[in-house]
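Human:
If only I could read backbone structure tokens as easily as an amino acid sequence. I am handing you a single protein, as its sequence and its fold in token form. I hope you can help me see how the letters and the tokens relate. Thank you; the sequence and its tokens follow:
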Amino acid sequence: MFKIIRQYIKATDWFYLLLCVCCSTLSVITLISIGMDNGGFAVDSFTGEITGLGNYRDAMMQAAASLLGLLCAVMLSCIDYRGLAKIWPVHVTITWGLVLLTLTRLSIGPIELGYAPSNTDNHSWILFGPLSLQPTELAKISFILTFAMHLDNVREHINEPKVLAKLLLHILVPVGIIHIQGDDGTGIVFATMGCMMLFAAGLSWKYILSAIALGSAGLAAILNFFPDQLKGYQVDRIMALFYPDDPQYRDIMQQQKGGRVSIGSGQIFGNGFFHDDHSYVINAQDDFIFSYMAQCIGFVGCAVVLALLFGIAIRTLITGLRSEDHIGTYICVGVFAAMAWQIIINLGMNTMLLPVIGVTLPFFSAGGSSALMMYLCVGLVTSVYMHNKKRLFSD
């Protein structure tokens, strides 16, 4: 057993995996601290005996999902990524079949399809009693594999209008399904993944610049002339960034203002974990975990967090750039895009630079589906690292 482990460590990018484990460890520590702030274990009101995990549930689920994800990443890395791309009918059927189930919004015994968390209209979840699954997170893996193979098949003709139209349809269909679910934040991540993979495949700059111009003009036109095309709260969240002190946006900006106060309260070295006088942040365990960490570990700690995430993202991109074949490059660019844009959007939300759109911070935000998806992405990148003939990152 130890011999197999040593051989695997020698063959894999162990430093890449170590960076991911460091992020997950810090996430669990942060979630334990949040759970302590919120009362800790569930206890019997009369006897005082512990009756459940209570507010420590997020931390325990995150630890379990991260360990399971790491195991899946190791197993996935041992499989040639080319073979994973070729069996696309299998993972497309499973992942997108689960996604389509959420559109039905049915309850069958302990199973609830199309579940939406409280105070949201994001019906992208499946409940299994106390457990939940967000299939769109797993569908990201399938999308990266299938789109990478699609690009590899047509890379010589990518700038031909008919070929490009089919590639855009490959992106727009998943984004449209996710929009119907009400999860536009995830839809944006899918769109950015597809666009960056197109760029890596050699899409002409004339198309790129045209798309940027049309997209900017289209968004401006919708906000000014067709606001009904967006949900009311989406327009309000965008406008609130420009008028944060307007009384009509007070409730909308409460979360982001609280997050900004929390970030500032950490100052240089932070106030530490595991005490009950942290500044309150709405959804600190999810979208605003960075704000909570900032007050605990301060500017210096946040710099370490960003360095870990930056290291993972750059290591992902370099692995792709050194891949011997195009499909390996496209896979790594897709994973890099998923990580990088989630980081950018989440930090923008926490610092009041972008509206709140429900995008989690990779490896850190609570959520078993998100943690599992990130480790599956890591497994794909490590597979590219291990199944190229030349040694990547060699001296």
